[in-house]
User: Which sequence fits this backbone?
């Protein structure tokens, strides 16, 4: 059996609100994606991952799901999704939906019923309703904080509290209640039967909650990060949930799951991609690394080590406790997604930030495994600076206006023309305003420029494709401080994170992320050689 399609796949992440607007309401939609599939095909990606398009009041832009088996009218309808799937498949592009098992919306019929029902009722048993602490139950049941800031509990009119690890509009589901897995299976089959090719599973390290909901040791944590001993996440029980999901997905050959797993410890991370759990899990180390040779190398080494330690399925682990198994997982790589600051800005912004982001593109695309590219990354978009008044991320309100949140990486894509809305929409007031300075960053502009970031992505992806099937391992080559060089099946990737130009390694120059002077690799530049 050959390697599955996704094991070296390039996945393009479409944030549907911001990709392309077909109906002139200032918000992107499914027909907008269908109309711009040329862009994905020209890039040469294997698959797209669509952020949630299911029915939602949009308190967290679709991650608060009121009906997991229907399309929100903002994005279109089921027919529009079918059109997109068919059009993508015609072009050889697979499509992953984004599902949210950990929580629902407060508008989900289950939660509406739970609010109407009494404490202790079966309706409340689908969520985490608890009495409060203190003489009148006026204190939350434990000290858990929401990932978006503030307490993870909200009190309802009869005095009970319900748990929400994210916004109050996102109550956590109780996966010990059989309704949660049964309904999730229905959702998986619903989309797989319609022809989608798999799922990104939101908060895949959530779902299982520890018995008794003990206090967390440390409540002072930054957005989307937490310690591995945080009782809110990464509980042992989560693996049984993943095995049940995998059993369903295995009925659909070729389908893939990729989990959002914010777990730092390599051995614990590896458990999520045992052969009977998720196919893939996001490893966020590379996007957390600074533009620094040591940090980048550590991130790569750790990500590779994490998947190398995968080993056996849970049942095999019990049977063969001491025997070492050889199965390894597939590494995944990303520099951006809809939750983090754009790479150009993270690496310092301006011309330097862009040069570094371009250099990291060559590192990213030379690595073995599955690669994720977030829409706009291929254009070198920086984080947009947005005025307070337009911010929409719940993080902004929940943090008492201290954390601006994730809107700056979610601004609509510039397609063409010289002024906002840059062909994204017919309407000037797009859901988030687009910076007028993006005129030189449009797809149209960059297609005509061989030195553009889009051209760099296209060339790099073409070379990656031509070398499809090249062997998994990477070999580090000795380099001066500040420089990182590795080789993979005859391709040498070198990146200079230092302040001085360095001598290029031997070989034929295939591609560089910036201008090369003779045999010198300038700072903030990477090159591929053969
Ligand atoms: C994940 C998503 C993020 C969302 C959160 C709650 O971290 O990537 O965008 O806000 O889950 O569903």
Assistant:
């Amino acid at each position: 059996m050959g390697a599955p399609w996704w094991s070296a796949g390039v996945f393009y992440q479409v944030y549907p609100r911001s990709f392309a607007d077909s109906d002139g309401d200032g918000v992107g939609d499914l027909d907008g994606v269908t109309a711009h599939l040329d862009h994905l095909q020209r890039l040469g990606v294997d698959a797209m991952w669509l952020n949630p398009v299911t029915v939602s009041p949009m308190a967290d832009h679709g991650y608060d799901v009121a009906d997991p088996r229907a399309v929100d009218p903002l994005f279109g309808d089921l027919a529009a999704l079918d059109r997109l799937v068919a059009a993508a498949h015609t072009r050889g592009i697979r499509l992953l939906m984004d599902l949210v098992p950990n929580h629902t919306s407060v508008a989900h019929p289950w939660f509406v019923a739970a609010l109407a029902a009494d404490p202790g009722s079966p309706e409340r048993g689908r969520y985490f309703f608890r009495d409060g602490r203190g003489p009148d139950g006026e204190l939350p049941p434990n000290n858990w904080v929401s990932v978006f800031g503030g307490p993870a509990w909200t009190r309802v009119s009869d005095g009970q509290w319900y748990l929400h690890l994210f916004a109050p509009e996102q109550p956590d589901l109780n996966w010990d209640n059989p309704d949660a897995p049964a309904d999730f299976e229905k959702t998986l089959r619903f989309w797989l039967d319609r022809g989608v090719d798999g799922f990104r599973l939101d908060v895949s390290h959530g779902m299982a909650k520890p018995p008794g909901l003990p206090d967390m040791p440390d409540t002072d944590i930054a957005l989307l990060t937490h310690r591995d001993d945080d009782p809110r996440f990464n509980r042992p029980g989560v693996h049984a949930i993943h095995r049940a999901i995998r059993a369903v997905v295995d009925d659909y050959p070729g389908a893939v799951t990729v989990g959002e797993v914010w777990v730092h410890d390599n051995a614990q991370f590896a458990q999520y991609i045992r052969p009977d759990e998720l196919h893939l899990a996001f490893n966020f180390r590379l996007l957390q690394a600074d533009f620094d040779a040591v940090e980048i190398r550590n991130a790569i080494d750790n990500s590779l080590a994490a998947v190398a330690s995968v080993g056996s399925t849970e049942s095999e682990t019990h049977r063969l406790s001491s025997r070492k198994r050889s199965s390894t997982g597939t590494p995944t790589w990303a520099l951006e997604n809809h939750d983090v600051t754009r790479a150009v800005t993270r690496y310092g912004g301006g011309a330097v930030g862009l040069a570094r982001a371009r250099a990291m593109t060559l590192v990213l695309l030379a690595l073995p495994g599955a690669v994720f590219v977030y829409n706009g990354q291929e254009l070198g978009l920086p984080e947009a600076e947005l005025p307070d008044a337009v911010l929409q991320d719940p993080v902004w309100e929940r943090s008492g206006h201290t954390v601006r949140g994730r809107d700056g990486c979610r601004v609509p894509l510039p397609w063409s023309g010289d002024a906002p809305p840059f062909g994204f929409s017919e309407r000037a007031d797009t859901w988030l305003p687009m910076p007028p300075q993006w005129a030189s960053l449009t797809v149209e502009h960059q297609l005509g420029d061989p030195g553009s970031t889009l051209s760099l992505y296209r060339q790099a992806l073409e070379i990656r494709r031509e070398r499809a099937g090249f062997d998994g391992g990477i070999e580090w080559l000795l380099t001066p401080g500040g420089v990182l060089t590795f080789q993979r099946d005859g391709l040498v990737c070198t990146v200079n994170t230092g302040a001085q130009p360095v001598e290029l390694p031997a070989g034929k120059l295939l591609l560089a992320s910036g201008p090369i002077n003779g045999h010198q690799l300038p700072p903030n530049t990477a090159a591929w050689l053969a």
Summary: The chain has a mean pLDDT of 94. The chain has 16 helices and 20 strands. The two ends are 29 Å apart (CA to CA). Residues 350-366 form the longest helix (17 residues).
